[in-house]
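tool_call: predict_structure(chain=1)
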Amino acid sequence: MGRCWWRAGVKGAVAAETGGPGERWWRRPERLFLLVAAVWGLGFVVLTPPFQVPDENRHFYRAYQLVQADWVGCVRGGQPGGFLPTNVVRTGESTQDMLPWAGRATYRLERTRELLVLRVDRQNQNFARFASAAYSPVAYVPEAIAIGLGSWADLPPIVLMYLGRLANLACWIALMAAAIRTTPVFRWVFFALALTPMSLIEGASLSADSMTNGLAFLTIASFLRWAVAAERRLRGRDVAWLVLLTTGVSLCKHAYFLLVCLYFLIPPERAGSRRAWAGFFGLLVAVNLAALGLWAYVMRDLAGLGLRPGAAPAEQIRLILNDPWGYVVTVAHTVVWYGRSLARSFVGVLGWTDTYLPDWHWKGWLAVLVGVSLLDGRAEVEIRWRRRVLGLAVAAATILGIVTALYIYWNDLASPVIRGWQGRYVYPVAPLLFLVFYQRRLTMSDRAKGPALAVLTMLSLSVTLGVLVRRFYG
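tool_result:
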């Protein structure tokens, strides 16, 4: 049992679902995921022009800031940021003319050649404004390591960017594959969600969402495993694993602290007694709150700053507290006003949200996600409605937390709608939303479901790459 307790449990779940370890690899979602994510992920790493994922240059600055051992950043003129080598910032700003508010320029290889001659001059530094200076280092571990090694080798900043993308992609693939392997149910749903175009684009970028999404999927999968498919009692080391996962995802983005509430999916008898079960939950909450409190103290100088000119966080918070019903109306107006845009951007919007997939693509992929959710149940595993409702409530509360943070720190005071809300913010809790469709009466065998979903996934990602190439290289 010792060294790989979780692996034995997962193998049991895999065997029950796929027919045993001798089953063909392309019917095993975690193995098929590794192939598809690696091939098409590399395509996105190479073909997406530098810094053409939302806020990617800001995340590049934050990762390089951590390489300099500048953990928090500083404030200048009321704006968060930090001091960075001039050529790092120059590289990060090199494709700003391709952004929707600056124009729709295409990308030429001459730009890369020009950037390759730049070197990181650590003595020549200037202040750069970037709101991601307040982000926890946890979200940047893979790319910061890669950028640090490349910087030690005196590689150009543009090469550091690609190294960071590759490191993020590798870590994201590992986390998502572990999530697919760990969850006892909805393995093909996890597969399809992870390989939705927007998910893979984020995973293959410098965005903090890469680590956030991977950790969140693995956290949800781990809670589901203990809720419906554990073979033995929950012990201290098991709780330590859940503490590590939840603390990591909470530090990536604070609203995901609410994922600790998924602990209530676990029956008390899994812990041996109600007292032990309650004690484990108390430990889970205490460690998460302590980590969040410590980080809030460390970044206290940046805490009250808006993320853009015109934002007034303190006043916006007072407005919400004084008129909570008015804020509920604002959220409702946003859902109605941006409903189509939210659905479209959940599947995938390229560039800095200015390049759209065909309508048939994003609508069809949403239908695929619902369809696989309805057909991916297991006859021997029942998930009662109260558990599904709990998952939906945690997802809804988490999304509300993200949206509220966006309203407070990004939007103008008393804005009638919450601007900047995008479907990609839903990804960390997406498995909980689709869990509502779980049923076990009508299912499809993996022999048919796996190949069909693999073909649809590869077609979807190929179409996305085609749109990407036409937009930036046409």
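agent: The mean pLDDT is 89. Proceeding to next step.
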